[in-house]
Amino acid sequence: MKKSLKKTLFAGVAALSFVAVAGVSSTNASAKSYAKVTSNKALTTDATTRNVAVNGTNALYTKAGTLKGAKTVATKTTLAGLKNSKQGQKNFRAYRVATTNRGSVYYKVVSFDKTYRGWIYGGKSVTAFAGGIASFSTTTAPAAAANTSSSASSASINTQGQTTALTDAQKNATYKITKAGTANDGTATTYTYPAWTEYRKGRTVTDATPYANDTFKVTDQTTRTREGDLWVKIADTNATNGQKINGWIKYSALTAQPTTPTVTDNVPQSDQVGIKIVDLNGKQLGKTYLVTKNTNQTTGYQTILANFHNLDSIDHGTADGAYASFLSAAGVTGYGSAPLTNSQLTANSSAIKAASYGKTITITVAPVNAVAFASSIQLNADRARINNGHFVGNSEPDSTAAVQLSNKTYTSLSKLKNSIVNDAKLQGANGSTLSTQQFQDALTAEHADTIYFTYDLNANRWLTQSDLKTDGSIKDDVINNDSQFIVIKSSMSKALLDGGKTNGSDAGLFLTSGASVFFDNTPNNTSNVFTTTPKSLVLDYSVAKSGQIGLTQTNPSANKDFAGLAQDNIH
Question: How much is the pTM?
Answer without folding.
Answer: 0.46
